[in-house]
Amino acid sequence: MRFKNIIYVAILVLTTIVTSWTVPALVRKMVYESNGYPLMYYSSRLKELCIIDFRETKEAFRDVKGNLYPRSQYDSLLPLLNYRQLAMNGNLPDSLEGHALDVKVLRSKQVMFRLRPSDVYSPHPKMGVLLEAMPKRGSLSLPGDYFRMDAHEMTFVESSTHSINREKSKMFTDELLKKGFEFPVKAFWGNPTVRKPYEEGYFCLDNKGSLFHVKMVNGRPFVKDTEVSKEVSVKWFAMSEVSDKRFYGYLFGQNGEMGILESSEDGGYRFMKMDVRPVDLSRDEVTIMGNMLYWTVRLSNSASMDCYGLKCSTLSSLSSYHQEKAIGTWDRVADFLFPVILSPLSPDKVFVNAYVLHFSAMAWGVSSVLALLVFMFMRKRLVLHKNIIMSVVVALTGVVGVIALLLLPRSRFE
Predict the structure, then answer these.
(1) DSSP string for residues in 135-194
(2) Parallel/antiparallel/unpaired status of strands 154-158 and 145-149
(3) DSSP string, 250-317
(4) With 90 as the cut, is the pLDDT of residue 251 above it?
(5) 412 pLDDT exceeds 60?
(6) Alpha-carbon distance 291 to 375, whole Å?
(7) 227 CB-near residues (< 8 Å, 6+ apart)
(8) Are 287 and 298 in contact (CB under 8 A)?
């Protein structure tokens, strides 16, 4: 056959690519063990970060200094985390650090936030829904239209007829331009749902990098430049209409800054930076668990975890903890057997694509030995050029390449 060698190589390459994904995935399932990061929380009693990992011992937990505490004290030493259980048992303290403890107040001051790289780098809707910020009946409702940010204007489209509301579009566009907004918009962030206590509209990043607050009040546009771009170059914003209305959301800067955007005393806006290491949104997962006195901020990725206990009022660091990712059985097996691991999925991406998840220098050495053995074993069975092709495949892919060769029909070797 004229193209026999080309077809042989194509089948070999395709089989190798498939096995470079499936074989490591199966091996990982076989040797799987839980080696994730533990739950961390800043204790208002101990004034220290606590490591809550009952995989180590089911009868105790510890703080970052290594002090052990019995599990029976778990609720009482972490009262702002376990206040519901303490209230059910009748053991909730009356006050803590001069603050009266009430279940309703504790619930309103509770903060829960999580941001993953896939949340940032996944596709986002090109349209938004602007709710009325001061509804007459007190409850939020859908307005019947949606908006999009076009190249030169903010365009409102009726959802029932798909026609453009020219009057409303002009009203909001004129107000944006009047307040110094420059089209086209780089990004805009909001929370388009009625299942929230109130409406704060959207925060829009204009073409020159200024962050604007846009909402609808009594059917009229409210537009204001937050002026936080003077302090930080905005990269990402996560809206968070919290119950106590202390802040609008979480703001991330181009240089790794992380903080909250809150209201200032004069009715303006203020960026309050968290006292944590720089954040890499392409790698780091951000988790925040907060209460009325302290916030626990965790920054984690595939290599390590950094955790901080922050004072709620100033977001200054009171305690910190660093932990490297534990090397498990899978990590040791992968470093030894697989020089390259391919996958259609990535833990940091939401798109299906061809991703290289792993490189190992040690496995390259093992692969070279396997390639030499294959070359010696097949030298009398194959012509030289086919033997070289097979040996190169094994040298590049190791055990996966050997399995790919074994999956091919024997006639292909000759």
Answers:
(1) -TTSS----SEEEEE-SSSEEEEETTT--B-HHHHHHHHHHHHHTT--SSPSEEEE---S
(2) antiparallel
(3) EEEETTS-EEEEEE-TTS-EEEEE-SSPPP-TTT-EEEEEE-SSEEEEEEE-SSEEEEEEEETTT--E
(4) yes
(5) no
(6) 64
(7) 210, 268, 269
(8) yes
Q: How many CA atoms lie within 13 A of 12 on its CB side?
A: 23
Residue 235 DSSP code: E
Contact 212, 223 (CB under 8 A): yes
> How distant, in Å, are the alpha carbons of 41, 55, 163, 312 from that of 75?
12, 18, 57, 21
The torsion of the CA quartet 247, 252, 257, 262, rounded to 10 degrees, works out to: -10
In whole angstroms, give the CA distance from residue 163 to residue 172.
17
Q: What is the DSSP letter of 382?
A: S
The C-alpha atoms of residue 253 and residue 316 are separated, in whole angstroms, by 18
Report which of residues 12 and 278 the model is more confident about: 278
Q: Work out the widest C-alpha separation in the chain, in whole angstroms.
A: 88
Residue 274 Cα distances to 59, 288, 371, angstroms: 34, 11, 52
Q: What is the dihedral of CA 101, 102, 105, 108, to 10 degrees?
A: 100
Q: Output the CA angle 403-353-325, nearest 5 degrees.
A: 75
pLDDT for 1 equals: 52
What the block records as the tokens of 291 is: 């209460």
Identify the bridge partners of residue 289 per DSSP, sorted by sequence position. Answer: 112, 296
Cis geometry, peptide bond prior to residue 143 (ω within 30 degrees of 0): no
- Which pair of tokens denotes residue 175? 């107000």
Q: DSSP character for 5? A: H
Residue 172: φ, ψ to 5°:
-75, -40
Convert the pLDDT of each residue in 167-196 to its tens digit: 999 999 999 999 999 999 999 999 999 988
* Burial of 279 (C-beta count, 10 Å sphere; 0-12/13-18/19+): buried
Amino acid of residue 38: P
SS3 assignment for 329-357 = HHHHHHHHHCCEEEECCCCCCCCCCCEEE
pTM attached to this predicted model: 0.85
